[in-house]
Design brief:
One of its GO terms (molecular function) is fructose-bisphosphate aldolase activity. By secondary structure, this protein is α/β, with parallel strands linked by helices. Helices cover 46% and strands 13% of the residues. The protein has one domain: Aldolase class I (TIM Barrel). Helix 2 packs parallel to helix 4, helix 2 crosses helix 11 and helix 7 packs parallel to helix 8.
């Protein structure tokens, strides 16, 4: 197996695991969010990962990818670029061939488990040969987000420790377990039902083999983020958690505010929420844990 110990995504999450803190993985759709990630990371002296969906390449060729990669490479703190929820071999190969992504989620969770495992193993080998770290989702996290296939018509399947080990055997570097988390809205914090004993069992089975990452965090409070970190999550993916104030501002001010002011204020609103999250997951001040 190729040595990925110097891969920046691996180093960021290994440091988080060792330091018992989490790192934000921020889903970005536009320039404002990408710039906000760097501004927040440098302001809080925190590691950070930018997450793009394959939609970014479908919409804008490699231009958003190039921007995000340049932001990560030029930042004064550790940042990496991750392709999230790549749900086809074509999307994975296309992204890998850019040479810009540090890690890719091989998301074959819409297939039944035997085919999921086989496809995952094949694509993990492909990515590793190019020096790219990989992630997979054992079980199935239901729901959908903008830019991701909605699995709401498929049965949600919670991850077991035994299943986690099956996916670890494919060679992945990061594991995204299903523990009651969902993509999209929970429709109230009271509806967030995470199985932390299950997560602890998965963590114990996976220890030393992969790092754990959290999907489906819409509506999470600071306390819920902290609980996830305490039980072993290293990267916590966020979408609406950091975008909601920006989207509210955009709805109220689009076409009524000079465009440069609109973009700057939008960026500031996203940055503010990312900084809040960095405090919540404990990554503030931990940039020096990762050597760049």
């Amino acid at each position: 197996m190729p040595d990925l110990s110097q891969n920046i995504s691996v180093r960021i999450l290994k440091a988080a695991e060792a330091g018992h803190y989490g790192v934000p993985g921020v889903v970005c759709y536009n320039l404002e969010a990408i710039i906000a990630c760097r501004k927040a990371a440098e302001a809080k002296k925190s590691p950070c990962q930018i997450l793009l969906f394959p939609w970014a390449q479908e919409y804008a060729w490699d231009h958003l990818v190039n921007l995000a990669s340049d932001v990560c490479r030029s930042a004064s703190v550790p940042m990496s670029l991750h392709l999230d929820h790549a749900q086809s071999a074509d999307a994975i190969r296309r992204a890998a061939q850019t040479g810009k992504f540090d890690s890719i989620m091989v998301d074959m969770s819409h297939y039944e488990k035997p085919e999921n495992l086989a496809r995952t193993a094949e694509l993990v080998r492909y990515c590793h040969d190019l020096g790219i770290a990989t992630e997979a989702e054992p079980g199935r996290i239901n729901g959908g987000e903008a830019g991701v296939q909605d699995t709401g018509d498929l049965e949600g399947i919670l991850t077991t420790p035994a299943e986690a080990l099956q996916f670890i055997d494919t060679g992945i570097d990061f594991l995204a377990p299903a523990i009651g988390n969902i993509h999209g809205p929970y429709h109230g914090v009271e509806n967030i039902k995470l199985d932390f004993p299950r997560l602890a069992a998965i963590r114990d089975a996976a220890r030393g083999k992969v790092t754990l990452v959290m999907h489906g965090t819409n509506e999470f409070t600071a306390d819920i983020f902290r609980q996830c970190v305490q039980v072993g999550m290293t990267r916590l993916n966020v979408n609406q958690v950091v975008l909601r104030n920006y989207e509210r501002y955009a709805a109220e001010n689009a076409g009524r505010t000079p465009l440069t002011d609109f973009m700057e204020q939008g960026t500031a609103l996203i940055q503010e929420r990312i900084e809040w999250m960095m405090d919540a997951v404990g990554s503030t001040g931990r940039a020096t844990d990762v050597k760049i």
